[in-house]
Amino acid sequence: MKTIITCLFILCTLTACGQKNQSNTNSQTISWGGKAAVGGYAPEGTLQIKDIQATLDGNTLLNLKVTIDMKSLDQENKQLKKHLKEKDFFHVKKYPEAIYELSQPFVVGVDTHFKGNMTIKDKTQTEKIPIQASLENGVITLILNHRMNRIDYGITYNSPSVFEKIKENAIADEIQLKGTIVIK
Prior knowledge:
Blueprint: H1 2-17, E1 19-24, E2 28-33, E3 44-57, E4 60-74, H2 78-85, E5 97-102, E6 106-107, E7 113-120, E8 123-136, E9 139-149, E10 174-183
Antiparallel strand pairs: 1-3, 2-3, 2-10, 3-4, 4-5, 4-6, 5-7, 7-8, 8-9, 9-10
């Protein structure tokens, strides 16, 4: 009986505070971009978002967890796409997901950056992601454009900072993620 009363109390408390647990599984994509360390080659592609879990209280995003399906990594050059999915880069057979989780609440209309943890290939790093956010009728729209260092996640293939003597085929360490995420 105590368990039932405790559960009802927690449910009533959450409802009274206006918190909403939301989960999106509708298909959303984000774009990625890389570039050669020298020259103008700059491949781009997409990744599918597998799941979004969020808790909203008024205009405050209390929790957010975005799961990216790394197997969905796409690029128009079939050979490059295959290589990016292999051990040299993202090793998607072993690491099929990447996850970003907020480490502190985000106030829509006030805050300009997410502060949280990104996990790629079982390596977790703190990432501060610039975000433009809006909230309308319970729908949050997040626009992101973030640059991050692939070396932090053990992706060192042809990196000029790891292999200092490499000249040809050097790949810049910085990768870019951008897109719009809608949380309903």
